[in-house]
Amino acid sequence: MRTQSLERILLAAAALLLAAGIAVPAFHGSLIAARLLRCIAIGLLAVFAARRRTLTPWIFVAMVAGAELGFDAPHFAVSLRVFSDIFLRLIKTIVAPLIFATLVTGIAGHGDIKGVGRIGIKSLIYFEVVTTLALVVGLIAINLSQAGRGLTLPPPPAAIETTQLAPPATHWQEFLLHVFPENIAKSVAEGQILQVAVFAVFFGIALAGLSPSRRAPVLHLCEGLSEVMFRFTNIVMYFAPIGVGAAMAYTVGHMGLGVLVNLGKLLLTLYGALVAFGLVVLLPAALLFRVPVRRFLSAVAEPATIAFATSTSEAALPRAMECMEALGVPRRIVSFVIPAGYSFNLDGSALYLSAASIFVAQVAGIHLSLGQQIMMLATLMLTSKGVAGVPRAVLVVLFATASTFGLPSEPIFVLLGIDALADMARTTVNVVGNCLASVVVAKWEGEFGSEPISEQVLEGVSD
């Protein structure tokens, strides 16, 4: 009890000092005093994190410290991007072998091919229902807020090369073809997660069809690779606070906090809509399938924090898989559902696309009827799939949607200024939504908590 009371005091004192440090300049107080108050608050947060002895508080402290550094020393903060890039590169080396090893082990290790197909069908049904609801929530939110009304169109920046943002082909045939790898090494090098997962599924099915004597050596190799990659993840996660702090420092230092002034209404609309989506869609889904909500929120806290700070789902994927397995989701379900969600269950991105598309029309002064908005929603259901590995993926889809419906591209360039801040929130919802999907499918299959948890996973989530 004493420990908990002291931790609450530390958090309360840090929050008060941080609020005071933000408020002092607003009342024409000393900037040095305000900076000192904020630094003391960060120090108290660091003491709190040291007492908890887990990574999650340290990641939160790094986010706050990075934001402070980006605000006080933007030029220096921008130079710290290399540390966030190092963290992301280390994470990207984990993703492909981890997905391959866990999927192959899950399929060939159990030998239940019908079970894998059943999991796939249930996952896709859940993905499509939830993603459609995300698009609807975004559509309703932007129509209520009218965030684009009254904004003057700026000329397109000459520095932006529109050829780099050219929309990809959106025909269903080309998307379907893109799902299947032509060269697994190329898929791994390009970070095409869905292609790696498809290759792993076929490899696992082929391995399961061999005799036990021939299957055993390859299966043991994949099981060993899976355990090694989870241990690799645990080691890389010790660098997470530095990488996350550097990412936050770069974001604030590069963009500045004043970016909220011009497009704050759109950001508030997005954040409010994402919260509403969590309350009216994700929470009811969790209650419907009897998901232990408190335990789930505790398990998803760390990968969600990483996703928010880095704006990259890949950075949170290995930890998300570990945390969901530790929660009680069997590895074969985790390794199938979460990677598949990268292309089929981008809830946060789908919601933002819906809101941003109508925002573009509002800025341009173009009135879209309800029927046209529904058609746009149906189009986004297709164009939002399979773009997780594309740089500036959401902006690419926006350009594709704008050209389809005859909307001008200039308002999309306005969104470049706040894309990083919007990406933090939508990526967090993407990660939380995929984690919840894995638990829902496990509950749907009646296999939640049915398998013992690996020692490597337990060691990782307890750090």
TrEMBL record:
<dbReference type="GO" id="GO:0006835">
    <property type="term" value="P:dicarboxylic acid transport"/>
</dbReference>
<feature type="transmembrane region" description="Helical">
    <location>
        <begin position="270"/>
        <end position="289"/>
    </location>
</feature>
<dbReference type="GO" id="GO:0015293">
    <property type="term" value="F:symporter activity"/>
</dbReference>
<feature type="transmembrane region" description="Helical">
    <location>
        <begin position="123"/>
        <end position="144"/>
    </location>
</feature>
<feature type="transmembrane region" description="Helical">
    <location>
        <begin position="90"/>
        <end position="111"/>
    </location>
</feature>
<keyword id="KW-0769">Symport</keyword>
<keyword id="KW-0472">Membrane</keyword>
<feature type="transmembrane region" description="Helical">
    <location>
        <begin position="232"/>
        <end position="250"/>
    </location>
</feature>
<keyword id="KW-0813">Transport</keyword>
<feature type="transmembrane region" description="Helical">
    <location>
        <begin position="33"/>
        <end position="50"/>
    </location>
</feature>
<feature type="transmembrane region" description="Helical">
    <location>
        <begin position="57"/>
        <end position="78"/>
    </location>
</feature>
<keyword id="KW-1003">Cell membrane</keyword>
<dbReference type="Pfam" id="PF00375">
    <property type="entry name" value="SDF"/>
</dbReference>
<feature type="transmembrane region" description="Helical">
    <location>
        <begin position="193"/>
        <end position="211"/>
    </location>
</feature>
<feature type="transmembrane region" description="Helical">
    <location>
        <begin position="390"/>
        <end position="416"/>
    </location>
</feature>
<dbReference type="GO" id="GO:0005886">
    <property type="term" value="C:plasma membrane"/>
</dbReference>
<dbReference type="InterPro" id="IPR001991">
    <property type="entry name" value="Na-dicarboxylate_symporter"/>
</dbReference>
<dbReference type="InterPro" id="IPR036458">
    <property type="entry name" value="Na:dicarbo_symporter_sf"/>
</dbReference>
<keyword id="KW-0812">Transmembrane</keyword>
<feature type="transmembrane region" description="Helical">
    <location>
        <begin position="350"/>
        <end position="370"/>
    </location>
</feature>
<keyword id="KW-1133">Transmembrane helix</keyword>
<protein>
    <submittedName>
        <fullName>Proton glutamate symport protein</fullName>
    </submittedName>
</protein>
